[in-house]
Amino acid sequence: MVIVHVLTRLLRAGSEENTLATARAQVAAGHRVVIVFGREWDATVRASAEAFAEVVCIEAMVHPIHPVQDPVAVRRMADLFKRLGADVVHTHQSKAGVLGRLAARIARVPCVIHGVHILPFVNVGQVQAVVYVAAERFCAGFTDAFISVSPSVRDACIERSIGAPDRHFVAFSAMDVARFRDPVPPADGHELLGVEAGRPRPPTAVMLAAFEPRKRQLELIRAIPGAFAGLSDWRVLFAGEGETLAEARALVDSLGLSDRIRFAGYRSDPQAIIALADVCLLTSLREGLPRVLVQYAAAGKPAVVSDLPGVTDVIEHDVSALITPGDDVAAAAVATARLLADPAERDRLARGAARIDVEAWTADSMNAAIARAYAAVAARQIKLAA
């Protein structure tokens, strides 16, 4: 088959990693795979995609809604799908999900699939939520299958009447979970934490996440001084890069906390960064199934996580993590400070994290689930044609 994957952006993030893993498996199975993405892309990620698949950049596809560029992007993708003779268009991410599916319909692509990596209608304003749900319901009319990253994400779509229940499937995000088991701290760990070599590491919280507004690092940093006031020594280490990183660094400097709140930037050894943690953090406003929670669990680390659909598909409150209200980042800061001050409680939650079965998140499991969804669509279409 000719399979086209469409993404809004091709950056270092979970949905891109999942998509490339799927595309790589499909190429290995003998299919022709084309990866289409918008104006924003990372050179390293693009190079990794080009190593095994065809790639096409649609410059007109931009992340925000754009009344001029969006129709251009749809037209160019529709023309591309026709030229390729696409058998399947598989869209990912919210913007590409709408534009790509519209283009697929115009091009009369036989099979249209949407990967639900995140719920765009969660934790947004009421008007935004109505618009997002309306757009998804409209596109559902010409979507043959939805493949969600977790049961909770699937259920949230079904509850909002986005596609018939029998068109929804689940494929847990793929990752190399083995590398996160029993991780070893990095050689530059003391430097990252600002601690002299040979001295004990202070109680440390780690957050692995791209720096973008929905991850809410800025709100967390603002809450830390008050929440951590009772701790004598501590560190918070952020790993990741993105649009709000410079603002986060400036905020830490303005608070006079550059010795306590540290930044690792992008790391190719996330397991080693997690190994530095006594507590792991995630304060996202929106997610699908946060891949990093699986990584924290594989490492046996207790976590503090803002409540979202999907998080309980990995962790359980007061068993392997503390789940704090989704609209209260300050509560996450307070919970983190409490765990940093209580080694016994950390150990109890760590034992719970170590008991989590993370095997469902392997690449083989994900790709097998996606293949089953494709096969179910094909079987349905054959039945209808008969």
Report on this model:
By secondary structure, the chain is of the alpha/beta class. It has 2 domains: 2-174 and 362-385, Glycogen Phosphorylase B (Rossmann fold), CATH 3.40.50; 177-360, Rossmann fold (3-Layer(aba) Sandwich). The chain has helices at 14-28, 43-50, 69-84, 94-106, 126-140, 151-159, 189-193, 217-227, 245-254, 270-275, 291-298, 329-340, 343-354, 363-385; strands at residues 2-7, 32-37, 54-57, 88-92, 111-116, 145-148, 168-170, 204-208, 235-239, 261-265, 279-282, 303-306, 321-324. The strands form 2 sheets. A 7-stranded parallel β-sheet has the order 3-2-1-4-5-6-7, sandwiched between helices. Strand 2 (32-37), helix 2 (43-50) and strand 3 (54-57) form a beta-alpha-beta unit. Helix 1 (14-28) crosses helix 14 and helix 3 (69-84) packs across helix 4 (94-106). The longest helix is centred in the last third of the chain and has 23 residues, at 363-385. It starts with a strand and ends with a helix. The model has no long low-confidence stretch (mean pLDDT 93).
Strand content: 15-25%
User: Biggest sheet, in brief?
Assistant: 7 strands, parallel
The assigned CATH architecture of the largest domain is 3-Layer(aba) Sandwich
The first-to-last residue Cα distance is 21 Å
Approximate helicity band: 40-55%
Summarize the structure.
It is built from 14 helices and 13 strands. With 386 residues, the chain is an alpha/beta fold.
